[in-house]
Design a protein that fits this description.
Helices cover about 35% and strands about 15% of the residues. It is of the alpha/beta class and about 500 residues long. The strands form four sheets. A five-stranded parallel sheet has the order 3-2-1-4-16. The chain has a five-stranded parallel sheet with strand order 6-14-7-8-9. Strands 10, 11, 12 and 13 form a four-stranded antiparallel sheet that branches. Helix 4 (about 60-65) crosses helix 6 (about 85-95). It is globular and about 65 Å long.
């Protein structure tokens, strides 16, 4: 049941008053109810692009932080890709010292407001939480990401988010390719050491997957722009509409333009398709294209945007990850009468965040589990008319640990749709590897790096999804932090 923000706030205030002045034992902390995230009413939000999750109030943030058992071994820290001192920031937040809490997070993370919104904490820092294990439910772990979001938002909105200090100029120049999470982290860490940094972005707006992939209703773009503005205030330069590999090759940046080091953080933006009949019909999209048109180009704003938008009535989204949820929920907001999500395993095996699946259900997305598309059928104008699907059962676990889907012969059926969105993952764009002789990649096209983030070419480093494949924001930041440390050490050696 959807509870109003007012109801959640009243409950938090009452509980906080009840606990005031008490010296809480671990048992007391375990008895504090997990704080539900206030959100827009499901019916209302279907018709707008505003953020769905409204964020904790101060009382909710304090109460959720009080649930932390402050265990000495802090397994949550080991689960955080950038090693935030989680118990320390939660203790500060529990005591209402929110600015101090934000400062502790800022020691390790440059994008707390972003990570607090879109990172899968339930499989990272919250997975090993002692409280969740004691309660035998990871869903009842301390909501670390939600508290992180609150303190980050509070600092930003209060105007206290300062500009990191920059050391005196070293005369060394670093090129950062891409402006996503890994690149933002590298640019900041390298610039702090006094090196000259220029970021190169292929699109007309910076932010990478944060602006073209993640919808406004999950991550407001003003938050991303604020982080870019901080980099610019530090003296980082930004080149837009600059396709490295076409506008300029990687090696030319070093041999002609005089950059001493290069970081490649171009992400994984090459869409994958299913290679089934009918994928060339009008009305078939990759989730990447569909979301880029809506998120980056704001095609939904027909009064102002110049990007055309396909008018869909019945939509089928193929996939079960966060991108599939984003595409399905975007289709709802773009006016589709029906949105069907087709996934070949059960909901238990879905890689999407539990919260995103729940929000999609609330918004009316229809789930089809243990089914998969085998063919797309068109009409006389080569427009999508139907989707042929096959039913599955679960077999033995595969290499990912998830049970493999096994087709049920003769179980084919047709679904009436006019739009199909393929959301089964992205690969690495081969442009840079094809135009950079000697740059080693694996069979999937991901750049191969050593433990320090160094590629097969001296002075060239890489990190994020171009190395990991499609991953999370915080994992990309961890990769960026490691590569930045290596770049700084390399430049000192030079």
């Amino acid at each position: 049941m959807h509870l109003s923000p007012e109801t959640l706030q009243q409950a938090a205030v009452a509980k906080l008053a009840e606990l005031a002045g008490k010296n809480l034992s671990p048992r007391d902390r375990m008895a504090i109810p997990a704080q539900e995230m206030p959100s827009q009413d499901p019916i209302t939000r279907r018709a707008n692009m505003n953020e769905v999750a409204l964020g904790y109030t101060a009382e909710q943030a304090r109460l959720e932080s009080l649930r932390c058992l402050q265990c000495k071994n802090a397994p949550c820290v080991a689960g955080c890709p950038v090693g935030i001192r989680i118990p320390d920031f939660l203790k500060a937040a529990a005591e209402g010292r929110f600015e101090e809490a934000a400062g502790i997070i800022g020691e390790s993370s440059l994008l707390p407001a972003v990570c607090g919104r879109v990172c899968p904490q339930e499989t990272q820092c919250q997975a090993p939480c002692t409280l969740g294990k004691a309660l035998k439910d990871v869903g009842k772990s301390v909501s670390i990401g939600r508290v992180e979001r609150f303190v980050a938002d509070l600092r930003r909105e209060s105007g206290k988010q300062g500009v990191p200090a920059v050391k005196p100029p070293t005369g060394k120049r670093v090129a950062v390719i891409g402006t996503g999470p890994a690149s933002v982290t590298v640019a900041a860490d390298v610039r702090r050491e006094g090196h000259d940094v220029t970021m190169f972005e292929a699109f007309h707006k910076p932010g990478g997957v944060l602006v073209y992939g993640i919808p406004e209703f999950r991550l407001p773009k003003t938050i991303v722009q604020k982080e870019i503005d901080t980099l610019l205030a530090m003296g980082v330069k930004l080149e837009l509409n600059y396709v490295v590999g076409r506008t300029r090759k990687i090696m030319d940046l070093m041999t002609i333009d005089g950059f001493d080091a290069v970081f490649i953080g171009t992400g994984a933006g090459l869409p994958k398709f299913m290679n089934i009949p009918g994928e060339n019909l009008v009305g078939v999209f990759s989730a990447n294209e569909y979301l880029t048109r809506a998120n980056l180009m704001k095609a939904y704003d027909t009064a102002h945007a110049h990007t055309p938008l396909f008018n869909s009535r019945k939509v089928a989204v193929l996939g079960g990850g966060n991108v599939a949820m984003d595409a399905a929920r975007m289709a709802v907001r773009l006016g589709a009468e029906e949105v069907h999500l087709v996934y070949r395993r059960t909901e238990k095996e879905m890689p999407a965040r539990v919260e995103e699946v729940a929000h999609a259900r609330e918004e009316g997305v229809i789930f089809h589990m243990l089914q998969n598309a085998v063919r797309i059928l068109g009409d006389e104008n080569d427009c999508v008319k139907q989707l042929e699907c096959l039913r599955y059962r679960l077999g033995e676990p595969d290499e990912s640990g998830r049970r493999s889907p096994v087709p049920i012969p003769g179980s084919e059926f047709l679904m009436e749709v006019d739009t199909v969105i393929v959301a089964i993952g992205n690969g690495s764009n081969p442009l840079i590897s094809q135009t950079t002789q000697g740059l080693a990649t694996n069979k999937w096209g991901n750049i191969i790096v050593d433990a320090a983030g160094k590629t097969s070419i001296d002075g060239i480093y890489a990190g994020g999804d171009i190395v990991l494949g499609a991953a999370t924001v915080i994992l990309a930041m961890g990769e960026g932090r490691r590569a930045a440390a290596s770049i700084n050490a390399y430049l000192m050696g030079k």
